[in-house]
Amino acid sequence: MNHFGKKIVAHSIVDGWTSYVSSVFNNSTMGKDDDQKIREQFGVSVYFSPDADFESIHPLMDMARQTQYVRKILTTKIDKELGGSYGYRIFVNPYGNQFETAVEQLRKRPESKSVIINLIHPLEWERKIQPNIKRMACLTHIQALIRDGQLHFFAQFRSQNVWNSHGNFKGLYELQRMMLVRLQERGLKVNRGGLTVDITAAHLYEFDFQEAERLVK
Predict the structure, then answer these.
(1) Residue 54's closest CA among 183, 195, 162, 182?
(2) CA-to-CA distance for 103 and 107, rounded, in angstroms?
(3) 3-state DSSP call for residue 33?
(4) For residue 179, which of 60, 91, 79 has the smallest C-alpha distance?
(5) What is the pLDDT of residues 92-118, one digit of tens each?
(6) What is the pLDDT of residues 26-51, one digit of tens each?
């Protein structure tokens, strides 16, 4: 049962992404998603160190898609192709600007364990924004913690497309960097900490199997 549980420690986005893809390709079980064949692995955790390089690029990364994923996290515009906007949930509705609320909570109480940005809502609420939506948000919540003068981010995905995950990683890194700047502007002396991404159900779609095999080899 080697498709359950995996911890990946990375010092660059390329390192984290390639290790993640390789793990799911090699240590997964076959499944289905809307009649599409997938390889899936449960309980994967990808940790990026505080000094991890997020500017490096791998030749097999789809950089246009990465940009699209980053915008999905940082902007409030709903992307019809990707389905929804994490940024809309973070900065607008239904709880107002959760990003600024998180900054203020950390400013007032840096040791807090309750600074969470919630992105998952009942499907009925989701359909008010997108009538044809069929699934809950993949990114369910982000927790920010300050320890030893470092801002750490913890993100939880209920499900994640492994092949395009570098876009999620980059977007979360940029959101963490934005929060770091805001905290410093508010007078809190804090440095960048780690970024931990936990994925309950990581999967590769069949149409990406060939490219994933190229990367693994």
Answers:
(1) 195
(2) 6
(3) strand
(4) 91
(5) 877 889 999 999 999 999 999 999 999
(6) 987 888 887 889 999 999 999 999 99
